[in-house]
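Technical note accompanying the year-one report. For the benefit of new consortium partners, we illustrate the data format agreed upon in the data management plan: each record pairs a sequence with a structure-token string. No post-processing was applied to the example shown here.
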Amino acid sequence: MLKTILSISGKPGLYRLISQGKNMLIVESISAEKKRMPAYGFEKISSLADIAIYTDDGAEVPLADVLKAMKEKESASETAFDPKKSTPEELRAYMAEVLPNFDRERVYVTDIRKLITWYNVLIANGISDFSLSEDEAKAAE
């Protein structure tokens, strides 16, 4: 599921992959307006299945595992606080509850804020299956 959810640098929100064109992808906004648009090769496009969080022991934890931990902590609902209005200390404390061994030097406050925002967008739009398929799990390794 996370393989088809994309983040496009310079564009707010998350997008679902709809189709592929010759030199572009056709994506649809996950938010309520469901706006479709092209995403070109020169834009930095990342699949959520390809993103991982650094840990203290040098390993990386796939984003899917972090989202599952957030889902368990929040009982499959949105977070109780607004990540945009939270202090850096609050964001780091929240991340420590979800992933206690995250690397505090390499995971920035902006990354934590983005992660919480993505989680809230996914949950608000009915996407709560964060498990990776077998193909996605192999690609993440």
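Partners are asked to follow this layout when depositing records. The longest strand covers residues 15-20.
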